[in-house]
Amino acid sequence: MKLAAIDIGSNAARLQISTVLHNDNVVSFKRVEYVRFPLRLGHDVFNYGALTPESEARTTKLMQVYKLLMELHEVEEYMACATSAMRESTNGHDVAKRIEALTGVKINIIDGQKEAELINNVVVQALDDRQFLHIDVGGGSTELNLYVNRQKVNSKSFKVGSVRLLEGKEIKGGWRKIEDWVEENVDSSKEVVAVGTGGNISKLFNLASKTSDASTTLAEIERIRDYIAGFSQEDRIHKLRLNADRADVIVPAAGIYISVMKWANANEIIVPDLGLKDGIIQLVYSQYAKKHKVH
């Protein structure tokens, strides 16, 4: 059986199709298709407050493509979720309805809390009993989640994101709100390990020297950030081989991870290959299992 997740973010929209595997009553998911397209919806919303007709047309075309791919893969169930850009857009819900009417793809516009919850459900599997600060940086928002003994003890969504910073549209006092939350919630007398999710931290991690298969240091993330910042936008694309829509946001995104880690006094970061799309897949499966009484 195949399931699919569509994640429509402020920078890009992703489709992931996974096969459900059963082994001795343990369910796992194997990715069989992954497509990412840079819609950059945040550019419209953070500058004009609404999605333009051009962005709506491109999103409609992309949903048609994703629907065809799901049909080719014979996907049984799927869910499409839109995050920061669409939820802040004054016409986001109207655009979602028109896209559904044209393509049959229903887009669920989820709030920051639901977004964080879906990511948390998969990230928690990578944790042990230490204190972890999960940092998920998107184009329009940053979600922070604090774990102790694999239990989430607090979470918060902030309107600080890579595309928002790139456009110079950060919310006044946004950085201070993050710093205050970290100071109030993280126990600095105990070891704190950061967990990073999002496309930018995955790319930074790929370029960094590792302390283990899944971890690196704050100093190494800073070094890679400074290294990339030393290149022009053109050289980041041609010499570092970054996608154009990654090349401009990766430095501001790195700044968010670095700042949060410093405020939390976290010197290590683990970067599991997980994100919102994986959380959506897990939710789709749990709803399918409940509906069909699968155990």
UniProtKB/TrEMBL annotation:
**InterPro entries for the chain:** ATPase_NBD, GppA/Ppx_hydrolase, Ppx_GppA_N
Q: Its domain of life?
A: Bacteria
Q: Name one Pfam family in it.
A: Ppx-GppA
Q: What Gene3D superfamilies does its record include?
A: 3.30.420.40, Exopolyphosphatase. Domain 2
Positions of the Ppx/GppA phosphatase N-terminal domain: 29-281
Show the PANTHER family listed in the entry: EXOPOLYPHOSPHATASE, RETROGRADE REGULATION PROTEIN 2
Q: What is this protein called?
A: Exopolyphosphatase/guanosine-5'-triphosphate, 3'-diphosphate pyrophosphatase
Source taxonomy: Bacteria, Pseudomonadati, Bacteroidota, Cytophagia, Cytophagales
